[in-house]
Amino acid sequence: QVQLVESGGGLVQPGGSLRLSCAASRSIFTMYHMGWYRQAPGKQRELVAGDTTTGRTNLADSVKGRFTISKDNAKNTLYLQMNSLKPEDTAVYYCNAVRTDGLRNYWGQGTQVTVSS
Predict the structure, then answer these.
(1) Beta partners for 93?
(2) DSSP string of the chain?
(3) Confidence of residue 11 (pLDDT cuts 50, 70, 90)
């Protein structure tokens, strides 16, 4: 079993920055592909950024150049640095871990990000 706990959300003005954290209950980054998803009201959950076990990262087109995904192996923590935030980035952000064989899939509880003036 893996617990994922997100933190770092909040209210920020357009153009501002936030850093989200996702703390895993144990060391999983060598066995699990990690990702950040978001879900806005009335919309489907979408992938924002991914980071594989080999360190390959990908970003949704809508956040390229503004968001960065990274990991701290010593702290078992995944990050999402979000810069130049826009109102359309408003959503609940979720951390996800999928084991490389696909047989385990874990979600965090989500953290609200609101971008508004």
Answers:
(1) 38, 111
(2) ---EEEE--EEE-TT--EEEEEEESS--TTTEEEEEEEE-TTS--EEEEEE-TT--EEE-TTTTTTEEEEEEGGGTEEEEEE-S--GGG-EEEEEEEEETTSS-EEE---EEEEE--
(3) very high
